[in-house]
Design goal:
Bound molecules: copper (II) ion
Distance between the termini: 76 Å
Oligomer: single chain
CATH superfamily of one domain: Cupredoxins -  blue copper proteins
Strand content: 25-35%
Largest sheet: 4 strands, mixed
Number of strands: 8
Radius of gyration: 28 Å
CATH class of one domain: Mainly Beta
Low-confidence stretches: 25-32
CATH architecture of one domain: Sandwich
CATH topology of one domain: Immunoglobulin-like
Order of helices and strands: HEEEEEEEE
Length: 124
């Protein structure tokens, strides 16, 4: 008889705990709006280069193949990121340019307006 007195409150407690924790479990049958497929989990590689005081910073950048590089002009003067095969528009202050590097190699670049500005992207 003593056992049942103890067991009943414990069972009630257990029911309460389960009842409280269940809503926190992963939403099942919610329409699957957050369904993930493996390709969403790939890490997007990215790197930043700032253009400041008429210089690229960092001037030399080593990246992995597939990395997206983003230049941001922090000077009040305009700049143009210029590679042999592609180049940005004229970037005014705050302007950005992005390019994804999918081939390994060394890519030198300059500013089309200020040829003394030099930078290099090494893709491995
Ligand atoms: Cu420039």
């Amino acid at each position: 008889m003593k056992w049942s007195i103890l067991i009943i409150p414990i069972l009630l407690l257990a029911v309460l705990i389960v009842g409280c924790t269940q809503p926190a479990s992963p939403p099942a049958g919610n329409g699957g709006t957050t369904q993930q497929n493996p390709s969403d989990l790939t890490v997007k590689l990215s790197a930043l280069v700032s253009i400041k005081n008429f210089a690229f910073n960092p001037a030399d950048l080593n990246i992995k193949k597939g990395t997206n590089v983003k230049w941001t002009n922090e000077d009040s003067a305009p700049h143009i990121v210029k590679f042999n095969d592609f180049q940005s528009e004229q970037l005014s202050q705050g302007g950005t340019y992005e390019h994804q590097f999918n081939t390994a190699g060394t890519f030198d670049y300059t500013c089309a307006i200020h040829p003394s500005m030099k930078g290099k992207i090494v893709v491995e």
